[in-house]
Amino acid sequence: MAERLLVIEDEIRIAQFLQRGLIYEGYRVDVAYDGVTGLEMARDQPPDLVILDWMLPGLDGLEVCRRLRAASDVPILMLTAKEDIQDRVQGLDAGADDYLVKPFAFDELLARIRALFRRVQPSSLPEVLRFADLELDTGTHRARRGERYIDLTAKEYELLELFMRNPRRVLTRDLIFDRVWSYDFGGESNIIEVYVRYLRQKTEESESEPRLIHTVRGVGYVLREEE
Ligand code: CA
């Protein structure tokens, strides 16, 4: 059964864009155009995840978030036009699990939704993620390329897992940063480049191991086969 998403967003254009896109991705989607209606819908038919706009008429998103959280553990992804770090903290304090700053790429929204579902339903059984001749064991945190085992540091593992769970999908630097490092790491940093370099060194030891983690200039990185 497809997961049911509740979108609470007063801007009709954005709400309908989200609804169409998410239905296309296979989710069931309900839409509320204000907070009170959203809370009622969440109570009457509990969603699996809520996408909640911050700026809503009447009851604002922060208050809706508090009330949703008081009533259930449903994952809440907040949409905000505010980039101020204090606002992000407020949202997280109010019980939001994640937030996305408008305008955002739809792919990033999808990635965050998937990430939230993974967090909520952590697979109790370790799994082996596979891409091309690369394998990543989520139990042992060890990778293998062909017959060769690769030991990873904690951060290398997290970064590689992110790529392996999003094959052939361009991951923006912001998304990678938020997923693998933290919101409050702060400042400009070449940490992503550094860790991608580590992963390449470990996964491309010989000629017979073509590059898998490719740079998408000006955007980020993608795990894909060599062209
Ligand atoms: Ca709004």
Summarize the structure in words.
This protein is α/β, with parallel strands linked by helices and 227 residues long. It has 2 domains: 4-120, 3-Layer(aba) Sandwich (Rossmann fold), CATH 3.40.50; 128-223, Arc Repressor Mutant, subunit A, CATH 1.10.10.10. 40% of the residues lie in helices and 22% in strands. The strands form 3 sheets. The chain has a 5-stranded parallel sheet, with helices on both faces. Strands 6-7-8-9 form a 4-stranded antiparallel sheet, covered by helices on one side. α6 crosses α8. The protein starts with a strand and ends with a strand. The model has no long low-confidence stretch (mean pLDDT 89). Calcium ion (CA) binds next to loops.
Short description:
The protein has two domains: 4-120, Rossmann fold; 128-223, Arc Repressor Mutant, subunit A. Helix content is 40%, strand content 22%. It is built from eight helices and twelve strands.
- Coarse shape: elongated
The percent range for helix content is 40-55%
Report the sheet-strand fraction: 15-25%
Name the helix and strand elements from N-terminus to C-terminus, one letter apiece: EHEHEHEHEHEEEEHEHHEE
Secondary structure: number of strands: 12
| Most strands sheet | 5 strands, parallel
Given the structure, what is the number of helices? Answer: 8
CATH topology of the largest domain: Rossmann fold
Low-confidence stretches: none
What's the N-to-C terminus distance? 36 Å
Oligomer: single chain
Listed once per kind, the bound small molecules are: calcium ion
Mean pLDDT: 89
Considering the protein shown, what is the CATH homologous superfamily of the largest domain? Response regulator
The CATH class assignment of the largest domain is Alpha Beta
